[in-house]
Design brief:
globular, about 80 residues
Amino acid sequence: MKFEELTDEEWELIEPLLPPPAPTGRPRADDRKTLNSIFYVLTTGCKWMDMPGEYGSYVTAWRRFRRWQEEGVWDAM
């Protein structure tokens, strides 16, 4: 299956389903970029550590994937 990044229309539907950033602490990585990285891994089947660097840290993507799973984000989508 060919991977395609989220369109603006898709992002507008998904963004409200994501938990807000913490009010304090380090700013988190961009949600849209991170979500694209997660979808890249899930679509292509590559290992997290092999995802393209343009999507940021694979550790961040994996952690966000797990956190959103625990928080029910995937079910909401």
